[in-house]
Every structure is written in structure tokens, then in C-alpha cells.
Design brief:
This protein is α+β, with helices and mostly antiparallel strands and 201 residues long. The chain has a single domain, classed as Glutamine Phosphoribosylpyrophosphate, subunit 1, domain 1, CATH 3.60.20. The protein is built from 5 helices and 12 strands. It has a 5-stranded antiparallel sheet, covered by helices on one side. α4 packs antiparallel against α5. It is globular. 46% of the residues are buried.
Length: 201
């Protein structure tokens, strides 16, 4: 079974004026099977950095464990939190180091630090791309259309969360591999906020 058959998901990230929004739906698929309706694909890594994924759940969880350990070591050694850019480069290097046996997922890293809000996307071998908004997964072609049409520089996190919700709902309506609720992580200078929303009408 190829990578395309198992990466079902819709995940989005947006840079906002006061932080970053990461969001994903909750359906976990394996080919044509819905393996779970309560998967978590958005993770708070530190008080100022979050991760969001599409792909295989075990690979996501393994990367979160490793990245969290590195973030904690950095804080202990430097007595300050790791920046979003540094965390992104670290994860990119981790993924590239496994390029012969890659983790089957796409990764978004978003955060808020002294440099302001920032967002990076990575493919399975660690290609690192900064952007203001991004979508990944099987529902990405639909979600990115909504983001392209409605994203504006300077929107705040509340407006960003609404736009993330709208883009994922549009993808869920047409992508059978996405669905079953939405997790949203909002990262601001004063900390993070996690929300879980139902898609039931």
C-alpha cells in the first residue's frame, strides 16, 4: 500500500497577527478503512511551539516524543525555550536523517516567539518551507482553495481559527478520508489554547 493511500487527512496552519493556528480533522484511515474517529494530529510541543501532521499515527507520535525531548533538553541547557525556527530546523534534520526509511507523514511546525509568529511545512524527508498559510493531506486541494480566497495578512487568531475551521469543513464535505471532528491549537505569546469541535450539524 503506497503513501498516497494512507495519508488521508486535512491539516491546515495559518500565521496570524497575534500568533499561529494549527488545525486538523480527527479521522484516522488505513486505505479504505476508518481505523478511528478520534485521532489526534495536532500537538502542543512547548508553550510556544506546536506540531500538526497528516500521515501514519505511529510516525507522528514517535516524532512528537523525540522533538519534545530535544525541546526539553534545549530549555535545560540554555534556560530559555527553543524558537520556532530552531525547532523546525531540528525536525527537518531529524526527517532528513531518516530519508532512506522516511516517516510517512507531512509535518507543520508553528509557533510564537521573540521573532513573532511563524509557520513551516515539511515533506517526509524534511524539505523546510516557511509560509503564511498551508494545507496538507488528502483534503488539502479543497482546503487550500478556501485559504487562498479568504486569508489576509493581519487577521487575528480568532479569525484564523474560524478560517481554519471553514477550510477543513469544506474539505471534509468532499474528502471521504477526512472527518469526525476538528482539533485546533492556538499559539499566542502568552501560551497555547486547545479546542476540539464536533462536525455534527
Amino acid at each position: 500500500m503506497g503513501y498516497q493511500a494512507i495519508q488521508g487527512a486535512t491539516t491546515v496552519g495559518l500565521v496570524c497577527s497575534d500568533g499561529v493556528v494549527l488545525a486538523s480533522e480527527k479521522r484516522v484511515s488505513w486505505g479504505r478503512l476508518i481505523a478511528s474517529k478520534s485521532g489526534k494530529k495536532v500537538f502542543k510541543l512547548t508553550d510556544n511551539v506546536g506540531l500538526a501532521f497528516v500521515g501514519i499515527m505511529s510516525d507522528m507520535q514517535a516524532l512528537v516524543r523525540d522533538a519534545s525531548a530535544y525541546a526539553n533538553l534545549f530549555r535545560l541547557e540554555k534556560n530559555r525555550p527553543i524558537s520556532t525556527r530552531a525547532m523546525s530546523k531540528l525536525i527537518s534534520n531529524m526527517l532528513f536523517g531518516r530519508r532512506m526509511m522516511p516517516l510517512l507523514m507531512e509535518t507543520l511546525v508553528g509557533g510564537m516567539d521573540a521573532e513573532g509568529p511563524s509557520l513551516y511545512s515539511m515533506d517526509p524527508v524534511g524539505s523546510l518551507i516557511p509560509d503564511d498559510f498551508v494545507s496538507a493531506g488528502s483534503g488539502a486541494p479543497i482546503a487550500i482553495g478556501v485559504l487562498e480566497a479568504e486569508y489576509k495578512k493581519g487577521l487575528d487568531c480568532e479569525a484564523g481559527a474560524e478560517l481554519a475551521l471553514k477550510s477543513i469543513k469544506a474539505a471534509v464535505a468532499r474528502d471521504a478520508i477526512s472527518g469526525d471532528g476538528i482539533d485546533i491549537l492556538i499559539i499566542r505569546a502568552d501560551g497555547t489554547e486547545e479546542r476540539t469541535l464536533s462536525l455534527r450539524s
